[in-house]
Amino acid sequence: xxxxRFLKHSVAVAATASLGSITAHPxxxxxxxxxxxxxxxxxxxxxxGRLELKAQTGKTVFAGGSSSPTLGYNQGYLGPFVRARQGQxxxxxxxxxxxxxxxxxxxxxxxxxxxxxxxxxxxDPGKVWEPxxxxxxxxxxxxxxxxxxxxxxxxxxxxxxxxxxxxxGLDADRGVPHEHGVDDLTLVIQDRRLDDAGRLDxxxxxxxxxxxxxxxRLFVNGAEQPxxxxxxxxxxxxxxxxxxxxxxxxxxxxxxxxxxxxSDAGFWPKxxxxxxxxxxxxxxxxxxxxxxxxxxxxxxxxxDQNRGGPGMMGMMxxxxxxxxxxxxxxxxxxxxxxxxxxxxxxRLPDATGDSPASRPTAFDRRRHFRLDMMxxxxxxxxxxxxxxxxxSMGINGRPFDPHRINEDIALDTIEHWTIESDMLMHPFHIxxxxxxxxxxxxxxxxxxxxxxxxxTLLVDGRAEIAVRFTQPAGKDTPFMYHCHILxxxxxxxxxxxxxx
Length: 500
Ligand code: C2O
Ligand code: CU
Ligand code: CU
What we know:
By secondary structure, the chain is mainly β. The chain is built from 8 helices and 32 strands. The chain folds into 3 domains: 7-168, Immunoglobulin-like; 184-338, Cupredoxins -  blue copper proteins (Immunoglobulin-like, Sandwich); 365-499, Sandwich (Immunoglobulin-like). Strand 2 and strand 3 form a beta hairpin. Residues 1-29 form the signal peptide.
């Protein structure tokens, strides 16, 4: 089938998918009946400067089950892969054809608060939103997704997420592959659960509310554990963790390295090899992989290790993973089979970006953020009371309050932020900024994943970051900071700030 024709064929694609997960290894044997990786055509707006999006309902069949009601942008499930050019303006026209309000946020775009698409900018059913996005930032892979408080988790899970690539026209000079769908593959990785009829399942247990939803099945661009043809050359993978809560620990089943060339906010100075990459919800990485040996290989993930913690939480956590049958071993994400095509790039580039900005040493101000899963007492108990309210979470002791701005920040300043997590690791995201990680994991100098400029950081204990505020945001359309475990965000682990 035409692999560029995205989910129009999701029925056929999904029907051929075989079930469940495997415990890693022989890519070959298990992969023959896999669906082909769907790769939507790029929605390239570099010439037109116009982006038309329609949020709509759909029906999608996953893995041969009964059809599920889903949501998407311009299609029944998920959204397009948009490509824009650095330096241009993109005039968006987003029509909400859903029967509920919808806010859509450009995650990773450095744009002013008035077009950022946070929860303050929810559009009513039938209405249109027309923000103009000035694209003025380094080349990178960003994305967009629903951000409607407190329904973000459900809306994203149902499919409201797409990709937004920023291109600077220099990939050929850099020597990195850049032919979309050929040697430049964008992979939206998500976990899902299907019920007995094979329908998309988003029933939250009290454990899911606490830890965030985790599925036991893995989908890439909407297809379960697909298989992708690749040329026998160096291939670029743009990885996005679009899951609600699950953290991936990606590696190849034959141990071959991934050469990281970019993270959230843009290119690294040069490729850095690693055999494992941790990818938390909202984060992006771009890696180069060498397929010149012609061997089929699978990208796999280890189990999410964001569970446990001391005492009661640890115990609850373990009961949960037992109760929900979460996958404990390795799980296949997708596999690649080199098909003999000769690719364009057959050596790793020496340099891919500028050297990183030097670490700021003076700060205009310091702030402290404590992420808190247990506002108002043991939330597990509240869940068990069955009052339907779920846990209340917050930052610095307060749940998100749409009517109360948390911080007023001065434009064109650099601040030092310390973020502390509680018993779980939390992917902390800030709108309207890129930041540099100074320390992570309680005082350690940044691990490999956190060396580049970022907008989302998995906080494990305590982290310190240098944040530069270059975009204005007024009090009617402030920027957000929040945990990117979407159930935590909806439970109140979010704040908002102005920049002026
Ligand atoms: Cu990707 Cu405020 O979110
Ligand atoms: Cu964002
Ligand atoms: Cu969280």
